[in-house]
Automatic annotation (TrEMBL):
Record Pfam families: Pentapeptide, Pentapeptide_4
InterPro entries: 5peptide_repeat, Pentapeptide-BTB/POZ_domain
Residue runs in coiled coils: none
Protein name, UniProt field: Uncharacterized protein YjbI, contains pentapeptide repeats
Family annotation (PANTHER family): BTB_POZ DOMAIN-CONTAINING PROTEIN KCTD9 (PTHR14136)
Length: 223
């Protein structure tokens, strides 16, 4: 079923979405739309307004989101397997309890998004803004992460083991019990090297300039 340019805001859409069909939403307004528990496997959302849209407990396996977005979209407890988000505004989006497996976020604005408490094997992220996001406990193990801003984000308990971070920023980031063993951080801006960061970066690969900054913060000058 296709929806083109429709105003679906504040509507309960479950009864309008028969199961067994692929649904396409193009340039629709889904502000505060109720898609709780909806069958949306393989659905496409193209340049839609997703302001406070409720996708809780929805089946979104294989769904594709391109463009559009909005504040405080709710994906709590939804199934998100093989989902792609490209150039979507997911600011303050909620993913707690969601099954997040092989999900990719590319070019997304994810300021204040919360993925802590999500389940599954994890996700990929590139060229996205995760300032103030909460990724507590998420795994990005072995991932190549490029062009991501983690400024003031909470990465407590995250696993970046053997990951590569290039053109990324970790300024003001919370790194309590975060793992960077064998992670390549040479292409990242590590921000102010305080004690918590130094502990988190144990076992990571850094460059000479980064090492000098860490030593300088402890009053040690390398000549």
């Amino acid at each position: 079923m296709d929806f083109d340019g429709e105003d679906l805001s504040h509507k309960a859409l479950g009864d309008r979405l028969p199961s067994g069909e692929t649904h396409v939403f193009r340039e629709c307004d889904l502000t505060e739309a109720d898609l709780w528990g909806a069958s949306l496997a393989g659905a496409r959302f193209e340049s839609c307004v997703l302001e406070q849209t409720d996708f809780r407990k929805a089946d979104l396996d294989g769904a594709v989101f391109t463009g559009g977005g909005g504040m405080r979209t709710r994906f709590n407890d939804a199934d998100l397997i093989d989902v792609t988000f490209t150039d979507v505004d997911l600011s303050s989006a909620q993913f707690g309890g969601a099954l997040v497996t092989d999900v990719s976020f590319t070019g997304c604005r994810m300021i204040g998004a919360a993925l802590t408490g999500s389940r599954g094997t994890g996700f990929k992220v590139a060229r996205s803004n995760l300032t103030l996001a909460n990724l507590g406990g998420c795994s990005l193990r072995g991932e190549h992460i490029e062009g991501v801003r983690f400024d003031d984000a909470d990465l407590s308990g995250c696993d970046f083991t053997e990951a590569t971070l290039s053109d990324c920023r970790l300024i003001g980031t919370r790194l309590l019990n975060t793992k960077f063993a064998k992670a390549d951080l040479r292409g990242a801006d590590l921000g102010q090297p305080d004690d918590s960061k130094v502990r988190a970066f144990a076992g990571a690969i850094i460059n000479q300039t980064q090492a000098n900054a860490i030593l300088a913060a402890r009053g040690i000058t390398v000549l």
